[in-house]
Amino acid sequence: MADTMRTIGALSTVGISFVLAIAIGAGFGWFLDAYRGRARMWHTGSTRGFRTAIERFPAEKLTVIVLCNRTDLDAAALALQAADLFLK
């Protein structure tokens, strides 16, 4: 799945084709980049009173999910702190 999300391809909208010349760093709603030299897929979200983060490292078969029911916590930072424990 991760390889499919990184594939550069063509989009078609109402008969008009657009060729993606560069990787846009996102796929299926996930952000795609590297963290400490490892391929990473991640997404965050928030709503009134809640913050969430998911960090996936496909090659390491590691997924970290943080769900906060407080807005004064940084779910993304907490997820990376947890991931760091396993990625050393």
Topology:
Blueprint: H1 2-6, E1 10-13, E2 16-19, E3 26-27, E4 30-35, E5 38-47, E6 50-57, E7 62-68, H2 75-87
Antiparallel strand pairs: 1-2, 3-4, 4-5, 5-6, 6-7
Write structural notes for this entry.
The protein is of the alpha+beta class and 88 residues long. The protein has helices spanning 2-6, 75-87, and strands at residues 10-13, 16-19, 26-27, 30-35, 38-47, 50-57, 62-68. The strands form 2 sheets. A 5-stranded antiparallel sheet has the order 3-4-5-6-7. The radius of gyration is 16 Å and the shape is globular.
Quick gist of this model?
The chain has helices at 2-6, 75-87, and strands spanning 10-13, 16-19, 26-27, 30-35, 38-47, 50-57, 62-68. With 88 residues, it is α+β, with helices and mostly antiparallel strands.
Q: Per DSSP, what share of the residues sits in E-state strands of 2 or more residues?
A: over 45%
The structure class reads alpha+beta
Please, how many helices? 2
Kindly report the spatial arrangement of strands forming the biggest sheet: 3-4-5-6-7
What is the CA-CA span between the terminal residues?
Answer: 25 Å
Secondary structure tally: strands: 7
Integer tally of domains: 1
